[in-house]
Amino acid sequence: xxxxxxxxxxAIAYTSxxxxxxxxxxxxxxxxxxxxxxxxGYDVFFQTGTDEHGQKIELKAxxxxxxxxxxxxNVSGEIKRIWDLMNxxxxxxxxxxxxxxxxxxxxxxxKMYAKGDxxxxxxxxxxxxxxxxxFTESQLVDGKCPDCGRPCVPAKEEAYFFKxxxxxxxxxxxxxxxxxxxxxxxxxxxxxxNFLLPGLQDLCVSRTSFSWGIxxxxxxxxxxxVWLDALTNYITKxxxxxxxSSELFQKNWPAxxxxxxxxxxxxxxxxxxxxxxxxDLPLPKQVFxxxxxxxxxxxxxxxxxxxxxxxxxxxxxGVDATRYFVLHEMPFENDGVISWELMVERMNSDLANxxxxxxxxxxxMTNKYFGGVVTDKGVAETEEEKAxxxxxxxxxxxxxxxxxxxxxxxxxxDAITEIFVLFKRCNKYIDETMPWALAKxxxxxxxxxxxxxxxxxxxxAGAKLLESFMPETSEKILAQLGDGKVTExxxxxxxxxxxxxxxxxxxxxxxxxxxxxxxxxxVDEE
Length: 526
Hints:
Helix content is 52%, strand content 13%. With 526 residues, the chain is α/β, with parallel strands linked by helices. Helix 14 (383-408) runs parallel beside helix 17.
């Protein structure tokens, strides 16, 4: 029997600068879901990458005194390095400057034009350069960009437009009949009430005021608007071609999940589905707009100087602790808060104590009392012993089902919590059975062996479940618990940290930036 396919994507990261932990969170989240689906036996295709065109990049390259291509090569390389550092198991890393992508975008544009969905006109309105978006006066908030809050300038230029209104009713109908399409539900209501129901305006899909983009091949002074170029990556890189698509495309499209930040839900649930309708392609099964990671309650931005980077976190805590932290701290719907102090607290309580200490104690006792080898003696003499064993086994057997149920709803933080409930139960089992007391009585030797056997089996079950979220840790635990014999010297999985020491290191990594630096970086803010 063929395995069922599962195609998952992240949003492609914009190459205007180094990605902070908020951008990195998304690829780790997608990776946890992709790994989990593989474990469940799905044939997974996981795609991520970088979005490399647009006026903002042209301006940044000019400031840096290099070509836009050199600029995006540097940034894209840095993004890929961080995705690899975070141990993400993507199958394809797309760059929108890839020749095969550019060629298909030109074909897609031409197809839409030939069909009458794209027409030529003039654009006049208020333009926000950082967001690369035009707005009408009425859409501005206090005269500023409704998305980023920065000033807009009046602009007029010749442009091609896409007839959004032509497909609006079809999209409204689709959203109403597919409640699972936009998740969480709060995002769906926002799209319907703020954009679709008031009536969609036609979308400007080309620009002439800058040249860093994919040229419209039949009208080369125009470049394709960055969103039409970026969104189509989900199909071009798996082999979509208007003249005949590849087997990989036939197999994987429609996507099972587009995982994106909540700030770009509009593009993914309005523009993207309408582009797909125009191409006569099925819509993705689900778009999940995840919340943001906030630092100390603020959205991270380089201008505020409150940016936390993944590679700094890895230097201080290691890859798996960083993965644990971002996955565990992100609620399903609300923004998560991140701070160095909170990371140290989690490191000490959850990772060093609950998990690390549990594995260490279990291995040490198995070595001390049985030379590293225990078998199931099945000894529980009193009612109390039987009850304690039964309860541990029940939690161990129940945890995979609980994790499954949470992962089915993409509640990744809750899934990890369930695994740690099992580890906490194992720690409680040690307190209840007191192996050190059993060890003092030769008559209790078989009971002691049974207790350690039960512990090892439960920890193994938890470690296997941990694989999607903390792959290296899972592997280390399973290797140490061995097959029939535990390791002689347990390896410390996570060391406790002193918060003052960590804060000193953080200060060394990023001494406070001067005011003028911050002002210069203002344009950068994502």
